[in-house]
Design goal:
The protein is mainly alpha-helical and about 120 residues long. Helices cover about 70% and strands about 5% of the residues.
């Protein structure tokens, strides 16, 4: 499980660099690179590979010794990667839907209007 952290880290750097601009929008959103397109088949394959690593972690998380700092760090990293990849794949699959779901400014407006 420790090795998969390195694999996920490399994959995260690749996906972020290949398909998204380095900066984010003022709304806190990822900005897709206009020149980079990912075919549906390649997107499904990439998502399947990353999901299999994350699923392996979820199935085996119970074997970690969380009082150990190394394992605490690993739990934190897996959760961060899971969150990041969910956002990346949401943006890659359907950018309009991603904007609707992740736009921080709209979330704040909803919080104000329901308060």
């Amino acid at each position: 499980m420790y090795r998969y952290i390195e694999v996920l880290s490399s994959m995260e750097v690749f996906v972020r660099g290949a398909y998204f601009e380095s900066e984010i929008s003022k709304e806190g959103l990822l900005l897709r690179k206009k020149s980079e397109k990912l075919s549906r088949n390649n997107l499904v394959l990439l998502e399947r590979n990353i999901t299999s690593i994350l699923d392996f972690y979820k199935k085996n998380e119970k074997f970690l010794d969380t009082p150990k700092q190394r394992d605490v760090f690993m739990v934190k990293k897996y959760k961060e990667f899971d969150q990041k990849f969910r956002e990346y794949f949401s943006a890659l699959e359907n950018y309009d839907s991603y904007v609707y779901s992740y736009d921080e400014s709209k979330k704040k407006l909803l919080e104000i209007s329901t308060a």
